[in-house]
Specification:
Number of helices: 16
Structural class: alpha/beta
CATH superfamily of the largest domain: Mur-like, catalytic domain
Shape: globular
CATH architecture of the largest domain: 3-Layer(aba) Sandwich
CATH topology of the largest domain: UDP-N-acetylmuramoyl-L-alanine:D-glutamate ligase
Strand content: 15-25%
Number of domains: 2
Distance between the termini: 15 Å
CATH class of the largest domain: Alpha Beta
Largest sheet: 8 strands, mixed
Helix content: 25-40%
Length: about 450
């Protein structure tokens, strides 16, 4: 994301730079340009393996991770298109292979992007539209059993929403975010997410606020799409530290997800419900458990246990990384930290950097009862990042003690100079852009 996709002189970097210049703005929600370029490409989107389409505000990526891990544990070949990336653009494109998928290599990704560039012939096209078209080309050219598509922004007008008949439409929790593009009410945002619902295609839905659920139910009814909603057609919970899932087909008692936080039980449940809502796959109990336990999704309550940043922090401290950036994301992260505190009490310090269009006060308010110590940092090499002093002002209004540091490394060095009775728990959070920067600094990029 904020780190280069490849070395500045690489062919991959060059083609992305050219594609970035085709449209004056980064985000322009519309399907017209996608339909045009896909027609010129010979409609690769019509030659994909069966598609599972995932929208929502929070939890989309984790749900895709559970879907992929479970399907791969059942010996299916799984393509996955996700966004945004953390360190390398290749992370967005995973190609299904027997025995487990692999990230698209520089050469094949460059070739797919160039193919889109040539077909587009200089017409306006956003970078995300170019990447989506390239994913369709890659997925159409490489055989697989299923393709997972994560919506980039919204749903109704997102460039992934050109698939006419997916296997399932999945909607993770909907909350307030990207209001400048999706509307300023929960109902309007839910309407955009529900725009991925297709006629007669099963809709699998996480637990939602009543306002959002009413919109999703209405759209599902309008499209005569069978609805499988959390708390209604299926249930997921925690019993004795294990994940318990139940629907009309029975009950499954599974090991807990490796991904940390109570919300990950809900995300895992959404993935299980999706795979059980369609008859396309045969998945054993053992494969469900292997997928839930084995799923990985970087920068979502990820503990950094090795890398160069560990050496900069106070000796013996914990460093956690989470890309949460809206109020609901902050709420689930705070809940996960609460669980950690119950197990092993430590003083919490938050190192935060955010984008300029985010609600810093709404995000940080979730942590007001857990810490009074905030270190505000900039997000390097990122357009429209929030200035640290503005973030600091939002924290001060919540009664938090705030410092400003030049970056994450400087923040950790500053904390290392303080005298702690017990080494602290440090959370770096506020933006996936910041999370990507941290993983690159730490020398632990996603593989």
């Amino acid at each position: 994301m904020n780190a280069p996709a490849a070395s500045p002189a690489s062919p991959l970097h060059e083609v992305i730079a050219r594609l970035s210049a085709l449209h004056p703005v980064k985000i322009d929600l519309s399907l017209e340009r996608m339909h045009r370029v896909l027609e010129r490409l010979g409609h690769p989107e019509r030659n994909l393996p069966p598609v599972i389409h995932v929208a929502g505000t929070n939890g989309k990526g984790s749900t895709v991770a559970y879907l992929r891990a479970t399907l791969e544990a059942a010996d299916y070949r799984v393509h996955a298109f996700t966004s945004p990336y953390l360190v390398r653009v290749n992370e967005c494109f995973r190609l299904g292979r027997a025995g487990g998928g692999v990230l698209a290599g520089d050469a094949e990704l460059t070739a797919a992007l160039r193919r889109c560039e040539q077909a587009n012939a200089g017409a306006p096209l956003t970078v995300f539209e170019s990447k989506t078209a390239a994913a369709f080309c890659l997925f159409a050219d490489n055989p697989a059993d299923v393709a997972l598509l994560e919506v980039g922004l919204g749903g109704r007008l997102d460039s992934t929403n050109v698939i006419e008949k997916p296997l399932a439409s999945v909607i993770s929790p909907v909350s307030m975010d990207h209001m400048e593009f999706l509307g300023d009410t929960l109902a309007s945002i839910a309407g955009e997410k529900a725009g991925i619902i297709k006629r007669g295609v099963p809709v699998v839905c996480a637990e939602q606020a009543d306002e959002a659920m009413a919109v999703i139910e209405m759209q599902a009814g309008r499209m005569r799409a069978p609805l499988f909603a959390a708390g209604q057609q299926w249930h997921v919970g925690i019993e004795r530290g294990r994940l318990v899932y139940q629907d009309e087909r029975g009950l499954m008692d599974l090991a807990a997800p490796k991904l940390f936080g109570r919300h990950q039980f809900d995300n895992a449940g959404l993935a299980i419900a999706t795979l059980r809502a369609t008859d396309a796959f045969r998945i054993s109990h053992a494969a469900f458990e292997a997928g839930i336990v084995g799923a990985e999704w970087p920068a979502r309550m990820q503990r950094l246990s090795a890398g160069r940043l560990i050496e900069l922090a106070p000796a013996g401290s914990e460093i956690w990384l989470d890309g949460g950036h809206n109020a609901e994301g902050g709420r689930v992260t705070a809940a996960a930290l609460g669980d950690l505190e119950e197990r092993v009490p430590r003083q919490l310090v938050i190192v935060a950097g955010m984008m300029g269009n985010k609600d810093a006060g709404g995000f940080l308010a979730n942590f007001a009862g857990q810490t009074r110590h905030i270190v505000a940092v900039p997000i390097p090499d990122t357009d429209n990042a929030m200035q640290p002093d503005r973030l600091a002002d939002a924290a001060r209004q919540l009664g938090m003690r705030v410092e400003i540091a030049d970056g994450v490394e400087a923040a950790l060095r500053s904390l290392a100079k303080l005298a702690y009775e017990t080494p602290p728990r440090i959370l770096v959070t506020g933006s996936l852009y910041l999370a990507g920067h941290v993983l690159a600094l730490n020398g632990t990029p996603p593989g």
